[in-house]
Amino acid sequence: MSEAPHSSSLISRLPGVETLRWREGRLELIDQRRLPGRVEYFACASAEETARAIRDMVVRGAPAIGCAAAYGIALEAARMKDVAPPAFSSGLDRAFETLAASRPTAVNLFWALERMRGIVEAAGQSRPPDLAARLLDEAHRITAEDVAANRAMGGHGAALIADGARVFTHCNAGALATAGHGTALGVIRSAVAAGKRVSVIVDETRPFLQGARLTAWELGRDGIPVTLITDNMSGHLMSRGEIDAVIVGADRIAANGDVANKIGTYMIAVLARRHGIPFYVAAPLSSIDARLASGDAIPIEERGASEVRGHGGLEWAPAGVAVRNPVFDVTPAELVTALITEKGVMREPDRGKIAALLKQ
Ligand code: MRU
Asked: Model-level pTM greater than 0.70?
């Protein structure tokens, strides 16, 4: 499946991006490695294929990989539904392990797998075909709930965005990173839908270029004005008064409000504080990991050296040069002006406020 390139006049009339969809018993993922050049779907028929798609960044973004992992379990259950119960059960255990090992930082992945595990445990001695049907229902439910959470978050967060605001974002926390609407970009979309004139500045987001390739494409399709900069330009624009607010997503939020998000987020939060610019984080409750006391305990994924030495098969650094590639960093809660969740806006998040939110 592929679409021809669009002229900008057509773009704003296109239907929303379908990041993941269930078609004829398979999970189809928009292949985010190919965007914006090609719109192609990548089909997964097993937990192993889904885990590979997560690891290889076919699908990425914390809520989206949670939904994909849930479907990975449903696929495996459907694939094995006719085998004897003991083999079905050990096959499912292996699927949980394979998916849990696909990426380490976004807690939504583990949160979704726990939801699926809960269905398995509640099913007791159910027949494999019945359990497979219940697991698929749960994956659909997780996906639908994510869209609903993003829309609620958008509604709460839109109030923070002034008419005419120039909003800076990093990475892609949009429809492509979720089941739909987006977290940070969902707030922007909701502000635009409420009649506010919002323009967006996004940085490239080296090394995987989620900002340049995905956010610029996604907002362009919606007709939301977007300007692309390189990762080293935001401080300059902030110092010149050209950015009114920063809004990003999150991969894992610790119990004290520290936020792990795409590498570079910490640097942007420090710059925003220096310039008195509000720094907002939009994330669903499924991104909060209350088991971790602070951001120091969040596992930070390190990816391969080739992502830093070059991109898309072209390497510009000397072959074999030593490389570090931590793909997330942690922003201390004290730099976060407000956390936007589906439950509302929490100003100056801290341990007490997060504990109270999780009890609501
Ligand atoms: O490595 P990625 O592309 O999966 O990282 C994604 C991010 O860091 C996003 O900002 C985060 O998942 C929030 S998405 C709503």
From this structure: yes
Q: How far apart are CA 60 and CA 217, in angstroms?
A: 15
Are the C-beta atoms of 283 and 249 separated by less than 8 Å? yes
pLDDT in tens, 247-283: 999 999 999 999 999 999 999 999 999 999 999 999 9
Do residues 315 and 306 touch, judged by C-beta distance below 8 A?
A: yes
Binning pLDDT at 50, 70 and 90, where does residue 14 land? low
**Is the CB–ligand 1 distance for residue 171 below 6 Å?**
yes
| Arithmetic mean of pLDDT, 42-51 | 98
Cβ contact 316:309 at 8 Å: yes
Can 251 be counted among the known catalytic residues? yes
Identity at 104, one-letter amino acid code: P
Determine which one of 31, 251, 258, 329 is catalytic.
251
Q: Which ligand 1 atom is the nearest neighbour of the CA of 62?
A: 12
Pocket lining: 252 vs ligand 1, CB cutoff 6 Å: no
